[in-house]
User: Fold these one by one.
Assistant:
Number 1:
Amino acid sequence: MESTKQSMDFQLPRRLQGLQPTLIRQFFERALPDSINFGLGEPDLPTPDFLRQEAARIATEEQNGYTSHPGLPALRTLIAEQYPHRNLPMTGVVMTCGSQEAMTDAFMCCIDEGDEVLLPDPSFPAYDACTRIAQGKPVYYRMPADTEFAFDISHFKSQITKKTKAAVVISPSNPTGKIMTPDDYRQIAEVLEGTGIWLLSDEIYSDLYFGERPRSASEFYERTIIISGLSKSLSMTGWRLGWAACSDARMMEAIQVLHGFTTVCASTITQKASLLAWTDEAEAAKAHAREVYKKRGEFLVKLFADELGLKATAPEGAFYTMLDVRSLGDDIEIAEKCLQNRVVTVPGVAFGQEAKGFLRISFCNTEERMAEGVRRMKEALK
Ligand SMILES: Cc1ncc(COP(=O)(O)O)c(C=O)c1O
């Protein structure tokens, strides 16, 4: 008989080798006590009271077993209705544990070993990680810093090869706060039409916008998988409610099966309470969040100009701005100096080479805390 003895050393499977916690987390976890947090993208506004009350009622009055794997039919129907242009049946939506799970599931269901995935540079580092977990190869298209990180169709197009299996778009963007225009999406659709390439559209910030409501990529390109959730717009990060939605029935079937084996179902209490997430009360809470973040973004960009003499991108949505520190040196060193003076920021390079020389600043803080943060940055950078 052949020896079945294996090494006793821990061996990470090849597909997971090289996966690291993001620089966002690495900086946050080293924060000194009483730091001002410009680092994490976590809303500081309270979760609306009517949602808390409803969740408390559901937890105390009702039995909360599993829901079906893809989630409560009433909730899936409500979400399908958010994308009327796709005329989605309820089965076109799967509820997940936050949009992060929807994202991982979607990558796993469309990427095969060696497939190339087009990712924006800069963008949320999870796309790179999800591509690698699915054994794909990340290929970056530039959102050039010199045009305030606007979409550039010529570079996007130039990165497509025979191996391209999927492309990712995010709007409003983490980390830049920029929004894709309808023209950007039209150009993408024109390039992708007939190629079979999947478009993974991260729309987690779609309710947080400061001008025109952002459009969904799915309005322009049918083979789009929408990834979204309630974490950011209703300050529900810890409630873990997200979804994947797509008009391709086989894709949704695949996502549903994988989701069943990874998490079974999203929290039943959260799903039931989330039935209130599109009521007038909820829409008023989202509108309030938009107002607050818009005002804070303007306040912070002005403060950076007045106090530090530095330019930050004008946020169009989400709660991020990119502070241009290229005149001061290396972004990791600058973020480190800020960290030592009790201000958490994220070096731009955490999101891609195009953001090198920038700091991503999130404005999930009161104006008073942000003013104190900028004061500490000034002190650190003199
Ligand atoms: C761009 C982007 N997508 C997805 C997520 C995941 O959010 P959640 O899983 O809470 O829905 C985040 C969280 O920071 C994000 O910034």
Number 2:
Amino acid sequence: MARLVHIQIAEEKGRAPADEVSTGSAADFMPPLPSLATLQKAAAGCRGCRLWTIGTQTVFGEGPPTARVLIVGEQPGDSEDREGRPFVGPAGRLLDGALEAAAIDRDDVYVTNAVKHFKWEPREGTKRRIHKKPSDREVRACYPWLDAELTLLRPEVIVCLGATAAQAMLGKDFRVTQQRGKAIESDRGATVFATVHPSSVLRAPPDARETAEREFFADLRKVGQHLARESGTKRIEREREVGRAAVPAADVPPTRRRQPASRTRPRSERRPGRDA
Ligand code: SF4
């Protein structure tokens, strides 16, 4: 398995230069002792890059603070920008379908984006707003929000949707086309999976749409299978901890990733002090 060296990735994410309307980094707006609630509030006033002048509002991540899975996309789309919530448009509905098919409980999922403002350009002669890919500079400027979400949530699994999200997490050399659906161990204590963004499935030409959707669902199913295996491992470990395990040590599957000792406690006892 490839390994993510978080320190190297963090170093790649040095400040973007400031300009006349932005400071160059979301770090300038980070609250002291952040919680998910204070992060969201602070992000609403972020001027870390110039996208605040383009999008309607900051679209922060959303989901339970106990989420096992953090799903990260590229940026909010048109519907998300208007509603102020991530993954509420057509791509979000496709994602919901794939999660359901993969038996991933929506209550276990937190959704967010690598960039938290909608970047768009007008389509000539219409009122339509056309998605524009965020630049490296904008991804870098926005990374402190994603980093803070990851630090607070400590998810077991991170799912990157599309190249922008995958490269924000795994570095510029990462290729979704070559490594989609593979489990990648992270020094953050989470297993990372990458797949395509559901909006790319929706944009696929009619003759490729069915295949694209099938492959997207298959990638999410691998995440669901991984979570199911992890749940089994944790249950056995927990039972052994309280001396009720009926299985010998050899039957306990090896832990698939490094994690602090606190992560082996029951979920109900973990993560004190976090809020929504
Ligand atoms: S995209 Fe991110 S860094 Fe840029 S203004 Fe919005 S929240 Fe801040």
Number 3:
Amino acid sequence: MFRQKWAGHTFSRRAFRLALAWAFSIGVACHAPSAHAWGNDGHRIINRLAASALPADVPAFLRSEAAISEIEYLGPEPDRWRSPAEAELSTAQAPEHFIDLELADKLGPLPHNRFDFLAAVYAAGERPEKIGLQPWQTDEVWERLKSAMRDYRELKAAGKDTQPVEQAIIFYAGWLGHYVGDGSQPLHTTVEYNGWAGPNPHGYTTSHQIHYEFESEFVSANIHVAEVQADVTPVQAIEGDMFDAYVAYLRRTATYVEEVYQLDKAGGFAGAGTAASRAFTAARLAAGASMLRDMIYTAWRESAQPVPDRYAGQ
Ligand SMILES: [Zn+2]
């Protein structure tokens, strides 16, 4: 799978020169395989652990073994949309798996509305598919989940059949899990997504294999559910605005970018890796599972709130 991107900024002479350097290095990187964040196995682990750890006040259907299995299956679902057999879909959804925060932040504070971000990107002479749309996609799928949960509550209260909406909720929860999982992979938050670009005083790898080796080969060979489960945090509803909370989660993930390269330099993602690389990877997967579980739980709680009157104040 190929992720094509470049950078071409016009904000200042210095930024422009840096952008040219990035464009060169990333232009080479676009021929590298990448972008199946966490690979099949990592996404399945994240989704299974999140669904398995939902608290008892979430409806039983969503905690059933059948639902957990379906949510696990859906972990890699958006990566199944990368086939050349569905070329338009593959292209349109590719930017929803990542965001290069260094590039996005040059445009100012991240707006909540996807189209406000797109307008800012185009106004700067950029292309959104080169920067990424991760937080908007994730927040919008989370809102779909919350909407379906609100419908579930209404049907339940009316004594009607809830089975059809239960299917929708399970799908949205599993679909959401993919993006939240991508968001715990440091290389999905940075221009350094597949080989170090730009100044490199520490001699980190510039190989365009690191992304795949870390998230797919290494995880599949070395990381198991039990190790990740040990690092899953206690359930906690998310307070405040979900978009803001999700961006804060992405920024925490981004603080681990350099550590990925340090571990790689120490041989951490070759073969069985090192104790440090295995612990690091399990902790990152657990961060994804914990956030996903908390987002599903928060959607459930917030789905009980009355819908604001859209005509209020008019
Ligand atoms: Zn992805």
Number 4:
Amino acid sequence: MRFNLAAALLALPLLAASDTPDYQAQFQEFLGQAQGHFEKLASRLPSPNTYDPVAAAAAKDGPNNVHVIALHNWKETLYGPVTPGSITPEEWWVLMTGGNKTCFGHCGKVEAAFNETAGKFASEATSPHMALLNCDNQPVLCNAWSAPVGSLWIFEMLPEPSPISIFSKRLNLTTVTSDDLVQLEKGGYKAVAREHDGIFHPFNGPLAQNGLSIPAGYLLWACGLLPSWAFMILVSLFSRRMMASRMEGQMRGGPRPATTGQAAPRR
Ligand SMILES: *[C@@H]1O[C@H](CO)[C@@H](O)[C@H](O)[C@H]1NC(C)=O
Ligand SMILES: *[C@@H]1O[C@H](CO)[C@@H](O)[C@H](O)[C@H]1NC(C)=O
Ligand SMILES: *[C@@H]1O[C@H](CO)[C@@H](O)[C@H](O)[C@H]1NC(C)=O
């Protein structure tokens, strides 16, 4: 619940700003500045992301041919097999997995089934490319995509700047087998998976289009570390401050906001 609340709070002003053409230019300028500040800040924070390049290389070159994606390499990995000018999508299957922290130790079976499936696919020429995203190791990326652990995301990659379709399917963590996944590929996933859209879409969503996915991922990850009561207190302090400064503005005889004034962003 606290996750959704944070997401909603984050999304509202962004969507409001990007939907009003009048403020678009102003918003872009603000965005540029915010990104600059964010990059400086992020370079000083201790990174919550872990990635083992040796293990990742071994997994990629191993018999299962499984890629391990992370914040720094997901995009180039997914675009890797895409040829310029191609109109047939390259299919990537990405399993959102996790360990004791994000999946409470329940992702072992689905991960093993996925690995086994990758081994079967590796010998077929037209089968999907396979990748693992471990949310214990990559909390920022998982938050930026708002990706639930234990789900399978199927990316249909086309050359840039084409929009990318993603289909997602929740897998049953207690029962799923490699045969189920092979069957999903044979039978066609479009009938049983859901097309993914919304503000967190890694390519087409408004956050990604404005370069805000990763800041949002950090913000949501940080909100997730707070206990929910602390989050509520922050929200209430913040809204009181806003009320107080608005009242103060009126008492000083500042310009009275028009009746619709609240919708207009401040300069
Ligand atoms: C996850 O938790 C289980 C049970 O508490 C423990 O046996 C296992 O070592 C833990 N795994 C990791 C990677 O910490
Ligand atoms: C699946 O494969 C990856 C990459 O080789 C490996 O790190 C992981 O431990 C495997 N998971 C299971 C449950 O075998
Ligand atoms: C997974 O499958 C088992 C056995 O069919 C079922 O009891 C369980 O409710 C399923 N879990 C989910 C999350 O659908």
